[in-house]
Write a structure and sequence with these properties.
By secondary structure, this protein is mainly alpha-helical. About 65% of the residues lie in helices and about 0% in strands. The longest helix is centred in the N-terminal third of the chain and has 35 residues, at about 40-75.
Length: about 375
């Protein structure tokens, strides 16, 4: 279809009228070209709420319970095998959390659960003081302490060690007091993960407020002060994708990477104790793919943001999907043939080349989401 400017369209109409003997009087109106696209978003929003966001937080809550059980076993029977099992439980809980960072809005923010569970960097100085001056740790006491001595990374440090030479730890290095602290931390984690799941399923504020999932699915309904229309919901979802792509490329990777080998800083590497950083980063972008496609990997084909984009521009919809996949692949490729941890890769010449390639792919994806996908909201005829 040809697209005329307003002046070109006017000239074309006048020429057509003249050819037909038209007088060109004020009775002839200039018709504006029809622009925009139509898309019924209700099914997509319902699916993303139930099958991606709520399902992910339910997985997190289940993983939190499993991590608590693994920690209880470790405390009761401190063997190497049980330490390894607790480490695996930590990694298993990490996955739904990191994938969920693609939609880190709502209760995870308003209830302060994000900093409770995932504050970084860890304050190892205060952690040492806590361990030296306290015993018999209980969950309610821990909840009153600073976020940077609880959550994922405190448990990570106690379970895996300092991560400098390796990501393993011998059971003989895990003191009785550290085991007790792990026990309290795991209980706190379980509680916060359940609170987040309940906020989406039962009540967003744990009191009289509706389930946040229902607010997302029923924008514009009476009493819904969060979302006045489906446009606001879709905008929230797209901005969530943009936010985590930006954070991974320009924060989680770029900050420790530095602008030169001499300025690489391992102290800024998140999940450095477990050497789980690259898995974290790829899970972040897998979370973007979950929202974009509307399902977890291997799930049934359901509506996601790709369907919204496809209604406006099928070529763009396909391109963004390819860019998401490429970013995930490039992040995973940072490890190279030797399965190099990210904290080592930032100080390795070849590793830095692979890292820059991943950063470039994330920049490409971010630009597409910001400059091509987000503006579609203004063209959407709802």
């Amino acid at each position: 279809m040809k697209h005329f400017t307003h002046s070109a369209l006017a000239i074309a109409l006048i020429s057509a009228l003249s050819a037909c003997g038209g007088s060109g009087s004020d009775d002839t109106a200039i018709v504006e070209p029809d622009t925009g696209f139509s898309f019924a978003a209700t099914e997509m929003i319902t699916n993303l709420t139930d099958e991606v966001i709520v399902a992910g937080y339910s997985d997190l809550a289940a993983s939190g319970e499993a991590m608590l059980q693994a920690t209880q076993t470790l405390v009761n029977t401190p063997t190497q095998a049980n330490l390894l099992a607790a480490q695996q439980a930590w990694k298993a809980a990490r996955q739904p959390w990191e994938q969920g960072e693609s939609h880190i809005f709502g209760p995870v923010d308003s209830l302060g659960i994000d900093p409770h569970l995932d504050s970084w960097p860890l304050n190892t100085t205060d952690l040492t003081t806590v361990l030296a001056n306290n015993t018999g740790f209980d969950a309610e006491t821990i909840k009153g302490w600073n976020d940077d001595v609880q959550g994922f990374h405190t448990m990570e440090y106690l379970l895996f060690g300092d991560g400098v030479a390796d990501n393993s730890k011998d059971i003989s290095e895990l003191t009785a007091n550290e085991r007790d602290y792990l026990m309290g931390l795991a209980e706190v984690f379980r509680d916060y993960a359940k609170t987040l799941d309940d906020a989406w399923l039962i009540s967003y504020d744990g009191q009289s407020g509706k389930a946040y999932g229902e607010l997302l699915k029923n924008s514009g309904a009476d009493g819904n002060t969060f979302y006045s229309s489906e446009v606001g919901v879709v905008e929230e979802l797209i901005n969530g994708m943009i936010g985590i792509v930006d954070e991974v490329g320009n924060g989680k990777i770029a900050d420790p990477f530095g602008d030169s080998l001499a300025k690489a800083d391992t102290s800024k590497v998140e999940s450095q104790y477990s050497w789980n950083s690259l898995t974290d980063f790829s899970d972040n972008i897998i979370g973007v793919r979950n929202v974009y496609l509307g399902e977890f990997e291997g799930g049934a084909d359901k509506q996601g943001i790709i369907d919204f984009v496809n209604a406006a521009n099928p070529e763009l919809a396909t391109r963004v999907k390819a860019e998401i996949d490429d970013a995930i692949s490039k992040i995973q490729a940072i490890a190279g043939d030797n399965d190099m941890p990210f904290r080592q890769a930032i100080s390795d010449a070849d590793g830095r080349v692979r890292i820059q390639t991943a950063v470039d792919s994330l920049s490409t994806l971010q630009a597409s989401l910001e400059s091509d996908v987000l503006p579609l909201l203004k063209e959407w005829k709802i």
